[in-house]
Amino acid sequence: MVISNKPGVREPEGETILHDLVAKSGFQQVESIRAGKYLRVKVVAPDPASAKRLVEKMCNELRIFNPAAHSCEVSIGRVPVQ
Amino acid sequence: MRVAVIRFPGSNCDLDMMAALRTIKGIEPVLVWHEDGGLGGSDYGAVILPGGFSFADRLRAGAIAANSPAMARVKRLAERGVPVLGVCNGFQILVESGLLPGALLRNSTLRFVCEWTHVRVENTRTPFTSGLREGQVLSMPIAHGEGRFFLQHAELARLEKEGLVAFRYCDASGRPTAGSNPTGTLHNIAGVCNAEGNVVGLMPHPERAAEALLSILGRPDGSLVLSSLMVRSEGRWGA
Q1: B204 with B220: CB under 8 angstroms?
Q2: Cβ contact A66–B67 (<8 Å)
Q3: CATH homologous superfamily, domain B2-230
Q4: What is the pLDDT of residues B62-116, one digit of tens each?
Q5: From CA B89, how far away is CA B65, in angstroms rounded?
Q6: B63 → closest Cβ in A6, A10, A63
Q7: Among B88, B96, B144, B146, which one carries the catalytic annotation?
Q8: What global pTM score does this model have?
């Protein structure tokens, strides 16, 4: 899952990467950079949809993100059973 | 009045807070480990969440402590009107637990800011500001990397309209200027309270400014915040 500041909430790390590294290095086409937090979660679930529901429930109940300022995107991939 | 000071793994202002509280007549501070059942009793007149780096600020400052056993009990006490104060990391914990609105984001400078600040008292209807005057300017230090208070525009407007901003960074004469805003915090907000007024959070450290000798201006301003607990006023908290 990716936790990032909502649109409109300033994100100074991404701004610094953009202004002081990327734009100064000739990549003028890059318009915006937003840093965030990335959590890779491995769950056991019968199918991708229920895995996603479980992770979303966990995010909301434990406030893995702060809804006042953050959005949280959950995406799902399969991991082979070991 | 017995006052619980809750210690989390990573708290580092707990003993300073205990020492500052001991200087106030009528207050008996008790250090409580966050996993202890001790908070279950209702004989605490107030609860204080001290500063520090609970759980090493992992995930986000205050986010893990917000789910600790102590916070479930603090929520029940807060609902009963017991005064609750969060200082610095304690404020972050209150915000992350939902007891106070908003978020405390990384400072706009991306730097840990450690300096003395002036803050203006905006709301005297709380148990931690009842001994102060509205507009009074206090000198207290800050020391944090995540103190940029944020709320979406409409909610921020409501917070302001309802008078729930408790403290605002300002210059020495009490003006909340851009230059006196150390972290990029919205509307120069240094502290807020809940609608009932009994839960207060602020980023500056009253316990580090509780004795004249420790203060850069030689004024024990922080002590006035803590000793407000002993002042009766017209606030709605408690019975």
Answers
A1: no
A2: no
A3: Class I glutamine amidotransferase (GATase) domain (3.40.50.880)
A4: 999 999 999 999 999 999 999 999 999 999 999 999 999 999 999 999 999 999 9
A5: 10
A6: A63
A7: B88
A8: 0.92
